[in-house]
Amino acid sequence: MKVYAGLAGIPVVKSSISYIDGQKGILEYRGIPIYELVQNSNFLEVSYLLVFGKLPKQTEYDQFLCDVKNNLNVDSSIINFLKDIPKDTHPMKVLQSIIPILSAFDENKDVLDEKHHYSALVRLLGQTPTVLAAWKRISEGKEIVEPDFRLSYGENFLYMLRGEKPEKAEGEIFDKCLILHAEHTINASTFTAIVVVSTLADFYSCVSSAVGSLSGRLHGGANERVYHMLSHIEKIEDIPKIIDEKLSRKERIMGFGHRVYKTYDPRALIIKELLEKLIKIKGDNIPLYQKAKEFEKVALERLKEKKIYPNIDFYSGVLYSLLGIPPEFYTPVFAMARISGWIAHCKEYLKENKLFRPTQIYDGGHNIHYIPPEKRE
Ligand code: CMC
């Protein structure tokens, strides 16, 4: 028997939700290339596509939008809870702990009932932006901003977070970033979600567990670290030395590398384009962007040989910083968008559910006898 470390290359499900060709840098959601979706669609329409397997007809979309918007408000007890927790709690921890509590307000509790799937989907899509924005305001000692139902999904989040209405283009660019984060085959957090659903736990438990899995720096947590890595650079000329020192210490360059992509992550290319569009609106001289571009160029020179390229997390933080989103909220934004992907996988997995129960190769001792505390060395 052999151990497959990190299950690298081992299929654990059959899925029709998304597809990656890591050699060619292709990503498709339900067969549609990611470029086409970013160009033509919006985050909620893509969420519908991921979960229900087809693009919605106008009436279906209108109903879905209405159901998400009807769930933007959170119960006042959740807001009161947020007011009582230490203000320096990381928003990923807040999100991970609030999600199971949101289930208390959902009467559709049976994970085997389609009503639970729909209800958890629209509630989580509606309420996670509100919880995150409320946490940002509360942790800064500011008044929370109620959702504005007239705004688009992306605009409303930026509005609740910042307390002022974003420009239309800012909302649109942000919404497209959410499309990029929405789904990505069986990565660590999605695998976590299906492992949890395989026990027939409800979707709130699956999503909350997946949030914990996403928070690590090898996964979604990389975007926050890229931001800090770039902002600590004082002079652009120092970049080659900084990178060489990191590599000689065997330190990983955050925002670079991927288990599946052995070329550019297509999401990294799209997010860079979106960032350039945003920079045109905000003005040219964005020091963080200048540093990011130089860092990308030099790191690529050093890592390309090993097929290590920028991933989505390399530029996402720079873009979010221009939208006024604080660094500790970059991974929560990723989580907020990934809810539709996680739920799509949980729903799909349940169709032929099999409890995950892998095995191990035991390499410990046998028949070892108990030693009383006073005799232990
Ligand atoms: N910087 C420097 N070296 C790297 C990096 C990196 N970012 N990524 C991989 N390597 C090297 C690694 O040191 C190893 O070298 P050697 O063979 O000499 O020991 C080799 O590449 C293979 O590494 P691995 O850990 O076996 O490769 P993996 O496929 O498990 O790595 C990864 C995938 C994402 C964990 C890794 O690339 C990494 O740690 N990247 C930085 C964190 C990051 O940006 N994560 C976000 C991923 S994309 C968003 C998401 O979907 O989560």
From TrEMBL:
<dbReference type="InterPro" id="IPR024176">
    <property type="entry name" value="Citrate_synthase_bac-typ"/>
</dbReference>
<dbReference type="GO" id="GO:0006099">
    <property type="term" value="P:tricarboxylic acid cycle"/>
</dbReference>
<dbReference type="InterPro" id="IPR036969">
    <property type="entry name" value="Citrate_synthase_sf"/>
</dbReference>
<dbReference type="InterPro" id="IPR002020">
    <property type="entry name" value="Citrate_synthase"/>
</dbReference>
<protein>
    <recommendedName>
        <fullName>Citrate synthase</fullName>
    </recommendedName>
</protein>
<comment type="similarity">
    <text>Belongs to the citrate synthase family.</text>
</comment>
<keyword id="KW-0816">Tricarboxylic acid cycle</keyword>
<comment type="pathway">
    <text>Carbohydrate metabolism; tricarboxylic acid cycle; isocitrate from oxaloacetate: step 1/2.</text>
</comment>
<dbReference type="GO" id="GO:0005975">
    <property type="term" value="P:carbohydrate metabolic process"/>
</dbReference>
<dbReference type="InterPro" id="IPR019810">
    <property type="entry name" value="Citrate_synthase_AS"/>
</dbReference>
<dbReference type="InterPro" id="IPR016143">
    <property type="entry name" value="Citrate_synth-like_sm_a-sub"/>
</dbReference>
<dbReference type="InterPro" id="IPR011278">
    <property type="entry name" value="2-MeCitrate/Citrate_synth_II"/>
</dbReference>
<dbReference type="InterPro" id="IPR016142">
    <property type="entry name" value="Citrate_synth-like_lrg_a-sub"/>
</dbReference>
<feature type="active site">
    <location>
        <position position="313"/>
    </location>
</feature>
<dbReference type="GO" id="GO:0036440">
    <property type="term" value="F:citrate synthase activity"/>
</dbReference>
<dbReference type="GO" id="GO:0005829">
    <property type="term" value="C:cytosol"/>
</dbReference>
<dbReference type="Pfam" id="PF00285">
    <property type="entry name" value="Citrate_synt"/>
</dbReference>
<keyword id="KW-0808">Transferase</keyword>
<feature type="active site">
    <location>
        <position position="258"/>
    </location>
</feature>
